[in-house]
Amino acid sequence: MQAREDMNEHPKPPFPKQQQPMPGRTAEMRPAPDHGERSYRGCGRLSGKKAIITGADSGIGRAVAIAYAREGADVLIAYLNEHEDAQATQRLVEEAGRKAILVPGDIQSAKHCRDIVEKAVSEFGGIDILVNNAAHQATFKSIDDITDEEWELTFRVNIHAMFYLTKAAVPHMKSGSAIINTASINADAPNPTLLAYATTKGAIQNFTAGLAQLLGEKGIRANAVAPGPIWTPLIPSTMPEEAVANFGKSVPMKRAGQPAELATAYVMLADPLSSYVSGATIAVTGGKPIL
User: How far is the CA of 97 from the CAs of 45, 49, 88, 126, 147, in angstroms?
Assistant: First the structure.
């Protein structure tokens, strides 16, 4: 990957004030996120691998899909309903010479999660990598504003779906396969206005640590990536305008990370050469430590 050597070249806040309806669209973001479209150069680290990535239509998921494809993997792109974004990711994967399968639908449904896995097996002949990345978040200033439905929705998308997908995928994974879960800096330093989301991210870290021990004898590795503030459609679609304008200002690098800047962490954790790395959480936080 040919990255910018000067980290000051990346966009810094303040950003233009902006808001979008959930779940957000990449094309409407200012500045446009960098997913590695022009910078990522693969070297065959995932040659012949078959990957499922949830939330791969945009943001971190798109950056991971681009990186995986350029490293030689076929990719199933699971997403909710952001068809234009998903088709853009599909084109980028196919331009890398790899197979890209689109599977829209709501991962709150256990059946849909099983359908995703079955589609990957039927199209690819197996699964080597599962990236549980899709997430729901919403901002609330008071616990009184969090409805029962909102709390349950956050857990169904962020936790239940991860369990459903992992349980369905493991029987199709051979020794050397990898499961990578997207946690968050909120698991260790929870933002109080993201109470439900932060709670699920703490659960994801514990799920990953337990899963790594449970699957160790099978030779299947489980790890997590904990992003800090990353410039994705989730931000303008779930945060107030003022928070969006100053997004990322609080970390030592004084800026939001770009999705492309996480891609190498997901590649490293999927790489067979990382065969002794399991139960780990990789922080990509702009210099802010996690516990």
Answer: 15, 13, 15, 19, 45
Instruction: Convert the pLDDT of each residue in 235-265 to its tens digit.
Output: 998 888 999 999 999 999 999 999 999 999 9
The strand pairing partners of 182, in sequence order, are 225
Q: Residue 26: which of 286, 263, 258, 181 has the closest Cα?
A: 258
The three-point CA angle 210-212-214 to 5° equals 70
Domains of the chain: 42-284 (3.40.50.720)
Residues 108 and 153: beta-carbon distance below 8 Å: yes
SS3 128: coil
The helix or strand, by DSSP H or E, that contains position 281, with its residue range, turns out to be strand 281-284
Q: Is 156 left (phi over 0), alpha (psi -120 to 50) or beta?
A: alpha
Q: Catalytic site residue 197?
A: yes
* DSSP 8-state code for residue 159: I
Apex CA 140: angle with CA 138 and CA 146, to 5°?
85
Catalytic residue among 68, 164, 197, 266: 197
pTM of the model: 0.94
- Output the CA angle 109-112-118, nearest 5 degrees: 150
